[in-house]
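Box 3.1 A note on notation
Throughout this textbook, protein chains are presented in two layers. The first layer is the amino acid sequence; the second is a C-alpha cell string describing backbone geometry. Keep the layers aligned when reading.
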Amino acid sequence: MSTLAAQGWLFVPTALGGPALANLRASVFAGVETGQRCLLDHPEVRSAAAILREELIQAGHLASSAVAIQAIAFDKNPASNWKVTWHQDLMFPLAQAAKAPGYELACVKGGVPYARPPRRVLEDLLAVRFHLDDCDERNGPLRVISGSHTAGVLSDVEIENAKARGEETVCLARTGEALLMRPLLLHASSPAVEPRHRRVLHLVYHSGTPVAEPWFRAIGA
C-alpha cells in the first residue's frame, strides 16, 4: 500500500520552478493577508493547477479524468499569524445550492454555494499544498495524524479520540515542494513562533465518478 493510501499524505517534488513561483507571489499573493478562496479563474493559478495535474496523473496519484475544483491562497506572516485546530476539510464550492441526497450543511461563502459532499465524493478528492516558501518548525507548519482519513467524517468526540490514539507528524517543507493530502485527514497548525511568509497554494482535485452536484469550477486538460 502506498504512503498516500495508508497515511493520507505524501510529499512530492514539482516542476514549478523560479518563474512560476515569482509569478504566483507577484500576482496571486500580492494582496493576500490571510487566505483567499475560489482562485481557479486566475490565469497563474490555472496554469499551476494544470502543470501539477499532469505531474500527478503521470505519477499515478490522479486519474486522467481528474479536474481541479478549488484553489486557495494562504499566507501566514507577521501581520497575519493564526492557529488552526484539528479538523477535516469537508466543505467545497458548488455551481448551485445543493439539493441532491447526501449533500449537507449547505451555505454561501463569498457569494458561492458550498456544501459537504457524501463520503464517497470526499474520498475521491486530493488536496495539493504547493509551498512558495520554506516551512520549518518555527513558522507554523501543518501537523497531521496519519491514517485518520480512513474513518470517514468524524464527530468532535471522534476527533478527540483520534488525536489521543494517533501519532502526530509535523509536515516541514521546502520551497517548490507539494504536500499531497486527503481532505478527510485530520490536520492542524499552530501560530508561527518566528512569523515570516509561509505562502501555500492549496489546490483540490476530484478524481472520481461524476458527482450529483456540479462543482463551482472543474478545470481539466
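The chain is about 20% helix and 30% strand. The chain has a mean pLDDT of 94.
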